[in-house]
Task: structure prediction
Amino acid sequence: MDDADALAPRGGRARSACDLCRHKKIRCDGEKPACENCHFAGVVCTFTFTGQPRKTIREQLSEAKARVRELEEFIAVRGLPLSGSPQSCISSPCSPLSLSSAPSLPQDSSVYDTALEIFQQHLEWSWPGVAHSPQRSSFYATIYRQTGTILDMSGFWARVTDFYKSQYPATQSKVASPKWPSYQLVQQCLEYYSAEGLYAVFPIVDVAAAQAIITDHVSGRDTPRIADKACLFALTAFVTKLHHHQPMFAEADSDGYAQAVLTLVPKLMLEPNDVRKLEALLILALHLAPAGQPEQAQLFLSMAIRILYHLGAHRKSPLDPNDKSHDHLRAMFWLCYTMDKEMSIRSCLPPLLQDVDCDLDFPPTYVESFDLQFMPPAPATPHLLLPTDIRVAMLKSKVYHGLYSCQAQKFPEARRLEHIRQLDQELSDLKASFPVGFRPESFSPGGSESSHSPVNFHNLGLRGINIHLEYYYCLRKLHEASFTCSLSMPLPSSLELYYQASRSTLLYYLRVSGLVDRFSFWYPPIPPYNHQFRKVY
Result:
């Protein structure tokens, strides 16, 4: 470092740390030609002045006024009325373009806020290593060595947010307040859930038992318990959120219903462990996960799984031979299993359900044929489909335990490479069992046009999209272990497959963009509970 470089201009502040030490927030010894930290990191010790001369209050005020004028001109061009101006109270003729692109009322920006939170969460899970780990520090050092620029994600978030607000200056976040749904709406949601066959994909409520609770309450024969209310109201929030495009749910406030159910959680925790309590907690986990709150969803899922164990749902045979609800419990067990394995492999944290403690025999009504799994089922189908394939979830469990668990981190390098090859073969065998028109390789770059033609995207429902996205993610996570888990040299073949899986994910999203909400772009990797797909089937 040159001493002259450390001098700030007039009004600035002198710096004594090089770029790398300043980024890592550690002390720099200032040695030449490289400080100790840069020497051990193997990077060039550089000093980039980033300070700016201090501005006077008059200059800051002048810049603020100029910014306000720019925003006013932008709003005028977009045709948005200025708040407080007389013109905002006068109805003037507008072109169809201005009416559609610039509504007079502020729009809800909570969708963007949720998408940004989800993106940040998944990006944090996708970095090599964890915060302040050697892998993370090496990653930052590599970027700096290759580009000469310090990776500043905080600045990136700020620029993205500023750009969004410049495009939609009239947006404001919607604050959800607790709101109790009417029992008429609860009845409509239950009937819709049953008529549309949603149980096949989301087995979260015993329809007959829920109907009995509503009937007893309406007739005045019985007052619902806290667990009963939480279950019914949570179902209402879930259905109205999942199918908000239906006219009957146009005025529903799904987030408000969910907030109301959350107020019951303290009392719900003191209720005896039963099926209704399990259903309520599971639905809350499903509702919160795609709303930018995956960690809170994991807490509710952990409580639901503990009740699953208590009720014996992890066993193939019921504890009580006369228990008629065991089939429903097993269906909920598999839904929890797929969610748990997805959260585990994504966050690289131990799963809540251990395979050695569970009976993993498929349910009798489970559809094992991929030819049926990718096509939309008929309403009220007796088959159990789940949001994703159980075998994909089992493969995720093997990937975590074989490559990312604490025990796997201690394996010799040769054994880890062997695990990567074995799991890659299992993933290839799973892909080969897909129908010809629905195999993930049909969407990889460079594929022939003939391989694309058999695909009918209108018949690709939530399940088919999920399996494709999960395949690409498993492929990426599988080969990511070759260069993020202390292997001496990354395998060139694994690097290529890793990049191919990432590119294929983007390409596949572009091909099915008509079925996916634009704000769910950053959230497809958690498909089992992604409510932002426009079509469930």
The mean pLDDT is 77.
